Amino acid sequence: xxxxxxxxxxxxxSEGALVLLRCNYSSSVPPYLFWYVQYPNQGLQLLLKxxxxxxxxxxxxGFEAEFKKSETSxxxxxPSAHMSDAAEYFCAVSVSGGTSYGKLTFxxxxxxxxHP
Amino acid sequence: xxxxxxxxxxxxxxxxxxxxxRCSSQSGHxxxxxxxxxxxxxxxxxxxxxxxxxxxxxxxxxxxxxxxFPNYSSELNVxxxxxxxxxxxxxxxxxxxxxxxxxxxxxxxxxxx
Lengths: 116, 113
Fold this sequence. Notes:
The structure holds two protein chains of two kinds. By secondary structure, chain A is mostly beta strands. Helices cover 0% and strands 55% of the residues of chain A. In chain A, the strands form two sheets. In chain A, strands 2, 4, 5, 9, 10 and 11 form a six-stranded mixed β-sheet that branches. In chain A, strands 1-3-8-7-6 form a five-stranded antiparallel β-sheet, with no helix packed on it. Chain A has no helices and eleven strands. Chain B has no helices and eleven strands. Chain B has strands at residues 5-7, 10-13, 19-24, 31-37, 44-50, 53-57, 64-68, 74-78, 87-94, 103-104, 108-112. Chain B is globular. Chain B starts with a strand and ends with a strand. Classes of the chains: A mainly beta, B mainly beta.
């Protein structure tokens, strides 16, 4: 079975500061990893995904994440926060085999607050 | 390219009633999954349909059921509603069982009173 742990349910940064949202996963088989963003009263929007190609993945809106197998991590970063980045972020894992094929397992989410 | 659309956007039901939620998949997608997102939680996988057949199920009781139609639209049915069923229900579609990620709809907010 797969699982995801997001460290920190709330992260607060100043506008222009570095954004770092932490995600650790557990999977017995090679995982596919995703970051989604959710704005209030909306669905989930895919930010980026790791599907076993390059370990450094670039996504939309200036976000990127690095897959580190040795640390079982997939942390999300953005060099300079913008007010519009304030939202809830979810890390998710899926696998390509077995009965869990394609099923997304999500972390509990991290709410990002950006201060002026 | 159309996205994933869900209806209705909001719904209030009484405990014990039945509800049907609808989802129109993104054009070209043959896989649909449903997720339940309780307030303050991450989405939880309910089930997935691939080419009209159930292709995986999460830890939800049988009163949660679904259908996928030949045009790949989908329904989620919940019988004997309980107060704990109050949540945001998200539909997501993809190609090839979602291994490369899903496109999510905006969800249906279900309140059970």
